[in-house]
Amino acid sequence: MLFVSCLFFVYFQLWVPVYCDTEQLGFFSGSKSPGQVAKETGSSSCGCDALKRDAGVDVGEELSPHLEDPAEKYSKAANEENVEHHGEQDIRSKMVLLKSSWFFMGTDNPGIPPDGEGPQRRVWVDSFYIEQHEVTNRQFQHFVNQTLYVTEAERFGDSFVFEELLTEELKSKILQAVAAAPWWLPVKGANWRHPEGPGSTISDRLDHPVLHVSWNDAQAYCKWAQRRLPTEAEWEYACRAGLQDRLYPWGNKLLPKGQHYANLWQGDFPTTNTADDGYIGTSPVMSFPANSFGLYDMVGNAWEWTADWWNVHHTPEDKHNPTGPATGTDRVKKGGSYMCHKSYCYRYRCAARSQNTPDSSASNLGFRCVVNPS
Ligand SMILES: *[C@@H]1O[C@H](CO)[C@@H](O)[C@H](O)[C@H]1NC(C)=O
Ligand SMILES: [Ca+2]
Ligand SMILES: [Ca+2]
């Protein structure tokens, strides 16, 4: 197992430029034409030429694992408040209370160094509630029904869809493609209601994560729900679920006991998706085991927006409730998606991160909300 991980590590070190060219070009704003986007997304946009490898950082004393049970599952108080505000029909996600604690954020063994996964640093987060699963189509539909909110993909008139999910007829109509990531096609009329464009529907996917929502759309939903987007630190704390120096929310083995613990990609990307885990695209939320905090799909299924601006430079000092840079051009997303495979997007790890402009939307990007304890 160790041998295998080392191999991957070397592999990723060698192939860093490839990652930068593919994943980073994978998503962009529906407001821009692909040509415009292609010009704007050189290696600089993914932080490749700002590479910083802080190896062997001293992170201070060992954390005391005061993790009796930081996660208070389905806290009665929080979930009763929900009912008061949103009535008996409250369809917002149940929440889990995570108690304040130190944890180690980031890693000194980055899978993708230019993403700024390191150095590992000690971070304190105050208690917060987090939704147990990604916001679903049903929940987003309820929000839209109540507020008549129009998403950015709907206003721009298009969004990016993964080629494999499109019909041949639709594909033949689309002339534009992204040279560096040809599996992403801008599809007119693709949005959260029509994830693969006109003719596709969410009616049989109401319990799947909502897709094609921009950061701004996610903000709007969380605000309506009287919640907010998690900071990257909160998200990663929730992902790690009290485990230290582990790759995934459940440990270091991708397939414990041969079982799939997340909706990822099996096969050769982008041509063959064997769907060994049961799903070609998204899965209903909570289809895979929860982490020990009771949270589902923290890695895989849909990428999740966080509140922070993107930046790849981190310092090793202890931090309290970090909120990321004060300004920026991109927002941080975490957890990877059903499209992630180790050969292409080794980002289904808690320390992994990526970014998009706040108005971007795509067929593998969603979110979940958090709230402060009252
Ligand atoms: C939203 O409104 C549509 C149209 O009235 C309805 O079919 C759907 O069930 C509503 N969805 C939710 C979650 O309330
Ligand atoms: Ca899958
Ligand atoms: Ca996810």
Automatic annotation (TrEMBL):
A Pfam family of this chain: FGE-sulfatase
Organism domain of life: Eukaryota
Compartments where found: Endoplasmic reticulum lumen
Sulfatase-modifying factor enzyme-like domain boundaries: 94-370
Gene3D superfamilies: paralog of FGE (formylglycine-generating enzyme)
Chain intervals for the UniProt region annotation (Disordered): 68-87
Main localization, broad class: endoplasmic reticulum
Coiled-coil annotated residue ranges, if any: none
Alphabetized InterPro entries for the sequence: CTDL_fold, Sulfatase_Mod_Factor_Kinase, SUMF_dom, SUMF_sf
Cellular component per GO, a single term: endoplasmic reticulum lumen
PANTHER family in alphabetical order: FORMYLGLYCINE-GENERATING ENZYME, SULFATASE MODIFYING FACTOR 1, 2
Family the entry assigns: Belongs to the sulfatase-modifying factor family.
Protein name: Sulfatase-modifying factor enzyme-like domain-containing protein
